[in-house]
Amino acid sequence: MNLAFLVPLFLLGVAGVVVPIVVHLTRRQRRNVVHFPSLMFLEKIPYQEQRRRRIQHWFLLSLRALALALVVAAFARPFFDQSSGNALGSGGPREIVVLLDRSYSMEIDDQIEQARDAAEGIFADLGPLDRASLVTFSRGADVVVRSTSDRSRLRGALDTLTVGSGATRYGPALKVAQTILEESTLARGEVYLLSDFQRNGWTGDEGVSLPPGSSLLPIEIGTEQEPDNLMVADVSLPRQIVAGRERITPTARIVRRGGDAPTSVSVSLELDGQELQTREVTLAPNSAQPVQFQPFTLSQPHTTGTVRLDDEALGADNSHHFVVSPGSSLGVLVVNGAGGSNDPSLYLRGALAISDDGRFDVRSRRSSTVRPVDLDGTAAVFINDVLLDGGSAERLRTFVQEGGGVLVALGQDGGWPASAADMLPGTIGSIEDRLQGRGSTLGYLDYEHPVFEVFSGPRSGDFTGARFYRARGFTPSDSAAVIARFDDGSVALAEVRVGRGRVLLWTTSLDSFWNDLALQPVYLPFVHRLAEYLGGRAEALPWFVAGQVVDLADPDALETAGLVSSEAAGLAEGLDQVALSPTGGNVTLPSGDGPRYLPLEEHGFYTVRQPGTDPERPFVIAVNVDLEESNLDRVEADELALQIEAPTVVDDGSPRLTQAVELQREDQERRQSLWRWLLVAALALFTLETVISNWVSRRASGAAGALAG
Fold this sequence. Notes:
Structural class: alpha+beta
Strand content: 25-35%
Helix content: 10-25%
């Protein structure tokens, strides 16, 4: 630890101490010329004052010189240099980044308050040159205050923080901290991570690397007590058509994580804000229990529902919200040949008719023509084992270009008119027998395609048991997508886009004549997926997860997803909209042709309406929390810090290192503030010198008066 000066050039002022001494010692006689005639002939004798050339009061002179020296030293800004050889090591001004977790698990035991208090303590310890940033995070990261020394601003930002609805993700927040530190010119970087350290928030593949001279300081919030949390994990909403009316039987799945003894909990069902039913359920530690409610009739669009349980540990996962509307049946037209005793569409129509929720409105036509009236209210068309005429094919072309879907199944009598061959995904060949052994099987399925996506999971449907004994040869075009092949590589199912719609071609039959697929359990869900995909209908979405985004400028997508009715979807085009969040905030959505994204940041119900209106049944979106956050297992804070350890600093003489050294020296000087004490000492010496000099003057005057008397 050495004494150093921040502005050593001011030390040249010490030379000013000798000026009074030199003046004092070289002082000459003061001339006072008086012209007097009677003395003009007298001899002039020079007056010499030897007494003035001697220093009589050394103590006073020393006080004056020392006081001046202290003033000069104060302006030179002295400090004790405590830095080591590593300029970016310990000491020096700091760039501090406080990462504060506001995921919904932080509401347990008021952990958000504990985190706020810890952050206030960090900001209170800021040095004169330190700068601090406040970043809050859950699934994403928000920079609330960036790189400031204003403590009041930082404290004010802390006062407005609340728990959010997102799950914990450390990667985005640490990436933001990395960016702030990389752009900083201060000597040191410190990242304080304030969190309950949910294990699900860190995978180890985030790729975070703090810059040299930085450190991660985790501060664990809360206690590591054994978690005991109850949650509504899921709600199934199966539908049935009873006496022409749609009824839903909700079934909730209640999960308990942790605990050491059975506990009872009350579970209620609310519709449109009114509690309808309540059930009592007892759960053992680490168990799950289904709770089924009585069916209710669904008659109004945008009916809001909530399954809620009474649990005080973690409130965000104690409720599960949903929005349901009366479903409209998907119009399906099945066209097959008029001749022959066998009905090639028997299994197809039977599969489409088996639906408790009445999702398909099936109409059948035994003819080789398709009339315009047949396509009214139709979304999907199955051309099954029949050769259409050219006029029907052209009508189907217009139908597909406007967004409809057509599947052509090639059976014994199937085909397609040459005048509309460009509508197909390729060229149809001749009939091929596959009687070797036990017949062919499906060897390739594109499980990323919407038709087969639902069969990608285990025990979700097995196509390998089906045997195919005959099929048509088929050569796909360059624009076609092959989504299923037989085990010999030949095409089983291909697709091509035509305008806004799609055309699929199945190279074998949909009955049991050319294959036994119709006799397999997978046949019914396969036919349902084909019809839904052709009709453009996806799985209805009764709720979203916090953190997702909805584009309200796409009414077709909203209606396809089952979010809104046709009438409500039409209101989304070209009109101003405002969204009311679950906590009462307003989100204004501009009109225009571009997208209108609504970020779903809170759990609960978002209500979307036009400004100044109050519709009886507004468009509502239900949002639930991500239940990954409800897993309260923790990751070791020190383990996480080791994975983000900053590299060692190398003194390469770079400008940044030189600037950091200067900032470090300035920070040390400001922290010590020795110049204030030097000025106080100089003022004290000047005061003492004044008192002593006055006393000496009075004493000398008294002695001179005594001699004169």
